[in-house]
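Progress report, Aim 2. The chain analyzed during this reporting quarter is listed below.
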Amino acid sequence: MTQTLQPVAIDGAKLESFVFKVVDEIGATLNTALVVMGDRLGLYRALAGAGPLSSTELAERTGTVERYVREWLNAQAAGGFVEYDPESGRYTLPAEQAVALTDPDSPVYLPGFFQIALGSVHDAERIVDAARTGGGVGWHEHVQDVHEGCERFFRPGYNANLVSSWLPALEGVVAKLEKGARVADVGCGHGASSVLMANAYPEASIHGSDYHAGSIETARRRAEEGGVAGRATFEVASAQTFTGSGYDLVTMFDCLHDMGDPIGAARHVREAIAPDGTWMIVEPAAGDRIEDNINPIGRAYYGFSTLLCTPASLSQEVGLALGAQAGEARIRDVATAGGFTRFRRATETPFNIVYEARP
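Predicted structure tokens for the chain:
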């Protein structure tokens, strides 16, 4: 039987508003590549603190071609990233934007955010294919911008919060670290969190693990460069197979939701942790209901979840696919199923929630 579609009245003003919203979306999508371009060419760094510059002056300072720089500057001005003075024909990077775009020690340093987004979009066609078949795309299968951008995005937040507020929010953990705790940093990626803890607590020993061999190679190099290679060691291993036992602290930073079998990982943590140990789970900020996450941060995380996190989980055994917006209730369920009897939200930031699980 053929279904007859009923005519729908179109609100012209709403349609026009949506069209202009789409134009803004396209500009924002293109600007992701332009920000990465500006970061790689040193354009933002040359603008920072320099006062008004012409496109010619900026090109000379960065060893680039003026015609490209002029077009890039105009795109940045149209998007509000730089300011343009029509009388002088010069461009200025405001101090606030300079902090976010050029200061790697700032907690709001953003180039890595753009870089991981660009890498995610680059790999989008593979996700389209996976969505048709139900398959997955592993973390190791993504382009370098995803791996490098991930570290550059998360590291400023870890630098700003891990030692100053996240670890102190856990019951008795700082005292153990100061006395020489044994720590397993599971899913450590490039080792930013491992190196940070090793530097902050010289008596502690940190054992990082990640299934991605390329990331572990980078983590070992980061530890050498940071002068903590003797206290921060690394192995290629999954969350279900990392070695060692009796750990005082097990950490997982922004990775539990990416795992195919997070409950299996939780059980392995329970086996590897000391009787009075702590499992610290850092996850993207999220509410338990979809409507809790209909906001700019939730939008970004749902986007990354579609292109990175869900495909990563579906590429592994079990493929639970928690997603980057799993929420506290689902993370609690994972910890409880893994054998942990105590679970609480320890602290949070606008981008992350820190959970504490105890045996």
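The longest strand covers residues 273-284. The chain has two domains: 12-98, 113-358. These observations will guide the mutagenesis work planned for the next reporting period.
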